Amino acid sequence: QRVSQMVEEVQKVIYHLTTEISNQDIRFQAIPYSLMYNGNITVLSPSQFLVTVPVRGLSGYREAREQRWRYYTLQGARLTPSGAPRALQQWLEVQQFMENLWQWLKADVSIQGNLVICFPENNNLHPLNKCSTFCLYSASLSGKVSVLTTGITVHVAMETSVGQVEIELAPEVEIPTAWSKRAPWPRCLSRWPSSDRAKCVKSFGFSLLARWHYHWQLSFLQAERVLLEHLDEDGGCRRRCFQALRQMKEDVWCPGRRPVITSHHLQTVLFWTCEKYPHAKDWRVFSKGLLRLARKLHKCVRQRFLKHFFVRSGNLLQHAASTELDAVAQKLALFLKDPGSSCGLLTFC
Prior knowledge:
The protein is an alpha+beta fold. It has two domains: 2-170; 231-349, Orthogonal Bundle (Poly(a)-polymerase, middle domain). It is built from eight helices and twelve strands. The protein has helices spanning 2-24, 127-138, 195-202, 221-229, 238-253, 263-276, 286-303, 322-337; strands spanning 41-45, 48-54, 58-61, 89-90, 97-100, 110-111, 114-115, 145-150, 154-160, 163-175, 206-209, 216-219. Strands 1, 2, 4, 8, 9, 10, 11 and 12 form an eight-stranded mixed β-sheet that branches. Helix 1 crosses helix 2, helix 5 (238-253) packs antiparallel against helix 6 and helix 7 packs antiparallel against helix 8. The radius of gyration is 21 Å and the shape is globular. Mean pLDDT is 85; it is low at 77-81 and 121-125. Residues 237-333 form the Mab-21-like HhH/H2TH-like domain. Residues 37-230 form the Mab-21-like nucleotidyltransferase domain. Pfam families: Mab-21, Mab-21_C. InterPro entries: Mab-21-like_nuc_Trfase, Mab-21_HhH/H2TH-like, MAB21L/cGLR.
C-alpha cells in the first residue's frame, strides 16, 4: 500500500513534468496519468523509481548492417576512439529509422549521424537535462521535486506523503515491432515459458534507453512484465515466493534508500529459476520455492554475476559495489543456514 501510494503521487508529478518537457522539446513525449497501470514507471525499490521518457519522431527501426569505429570529441573531430559497446549496449544511428523528425539531426543529439543523448565532456548539452531543469524551476513543481544529479540520465528527488523517493528519468526509444538480434530467446530445449507464451512476450518488442554517454542500453521491461503477469498459469506459487523474497530483501538482506540489489535483480533470479524448474510440481510447496530462489540469489551475489535473462552475455551486477554485495551475501548465507528462524519475519508464512 505504501508503494502504491508513492506510485500514484509520482504519476501525477511525472505527468505534469513530462508535459512541460514535451512542450519545450517536441522530441520527448508526455507520460499520461493512468488509473490502473503505468508501463513507464518501474519500481526498483520502495524509494527508487525508474521512469522511461518515450521519444517522438523515430519509427521504423531496423538493425544496423555494418559495424564501424566511432571517433568523437565535443567538436565532432575524429581524434579519440570511444569504447566498443558491451553486452547490453549498442550504437544507434538516425538512418536505422525509416521515419525521423529533422530535430534528431541537430547537433545536441547527433554526431556524424549517431544519436548521442549525453556528451561526456558537457552534460549541459543533454536535452532532457536542460528541459527537466528548466521545467522544475519554472513550473509549479519547484516545491515538490528537486534535481539531484544531471548526467547521462536525470535524477530527481520527490517528497510524497509517505516518504521521499528518488526518480531516474531516462529517454527511451520504443521498438514494439521487432525483437533484438542480441537476445536469442527462447533458448533451445527450454520448457519455460510455453512456446505460445514466448511468442506473446516477444511480440512486445524491446526498447533502447539512453543511460550511457555514447551507447544505448537494451531494455526489455515490457516483455519482462508480461512474463511476470503470467507466472502461475499452471497453479504454482512462483509469485508468492517472489513476493516473499522481495520482502526479505527490503526488510533484512538489503534495506536502504539505494540498495545494491533491486527488484529487477530479484525478477531476473526468478526467471532463471523458473526456466531451470519449469514444471508445476516444482512450485507446489512455498517453502521449497522460496529457498530455491534464495539459493540462486546467494550464488549470484557471492559470485558477483547475474546474467540478463534475454541477453545472456550481460552481467547485471557488473557495476555493483563489491563491498555491498559481500554484505548481502553474508546475510543470505545466515538465512540459508537457518531459514526457519526468519520465517516469522515473513507475512507469507
